[in-house]
Amino acid sequence: MKNFLSSLLPGLTLGAAFLVSACAQQPAQPHYVEAKDNSLSFYYTDGNAERILFVSSIDRYQPHPAQKVNNSVWKATVPLTREFDYFYLVDGVPTLPDCPYTILDDFGGKNCLYVYGL
């Protein structure tokens, strides 16, 4: 019986370690979007920022203050729109997050491109 339990112990230890690592909190994504009802919420992670503004072509690039939802994550919510481009102003500095699609702006730079459903 002792040999049988000894042979199971390495497998049980490995299984327990896997379960603990799978339940560990994963780091927050630096930038992501959630669609809900008729709105889009943009989340941006920056624990050092004092102020973040969300700027988009939805309303001709009027800056909108993002709200801090925890120590490092900021959230900006806009009406659901099929396609538009956007960027952030992080403490006054234009900032482009890691986004899947980009588009050239009128000044030779890039903006993120949001397309509903992609």
Shape category? globular
CATH topology: Immunoglobulin-like
Largest sheet: 6 strands, antiparallel
Q: Just name the CATH architecture.
A: Sandwich
Percentage of residues assigned to helices: 10-25%
Unreliable stretches covering 5 or more consecutive residues: 8-27
Rg over C-alpha atoms, rounded to the nearest angstrom = 21 Å
Strand content: 35-45%
Number of strand segments: 10
Oligomer: single chain
Helices and strands, in order, run as HEEEEEEEEEE
CATH superfamily: Immunoglobulins
How many alpha or pi helices? Answer: 1
Class from secondary-structure proportions:
alpha+beta
Mean pLDDT: 82
CATH class: Mainly Beta
Q: State the end-to-end CA separation.
A: 57 Å
How many distinct domains? 1
Task: Give a short summary of the structure.
This protein is of the alpha+beta class and 118 residues long.
Brief descriptors of the model:
118 residues, alpha+beta, Immunoglobulin-like, 6-stranded antiparallel sheet, 4-stranded antiparallel sheet
Task: Write structural notes for this entry.
The chain has one helix spanning 2-23; strands spanning 31-36, 39-45, 52-56, 64-65, 67-68, 73-79, 83-90, 93-95, 102-104, 110-115. The protein is of the alpha+beta class and 118 residues long. It has a single domain, classed as Immunoglobulins (Immunoglobulin-like). Strands 3, 4, 7, 8, 9 and 10 form a six-stranded antiparallel sheet that branches. The chain is globular. It starts with a helix and ends with a strand.
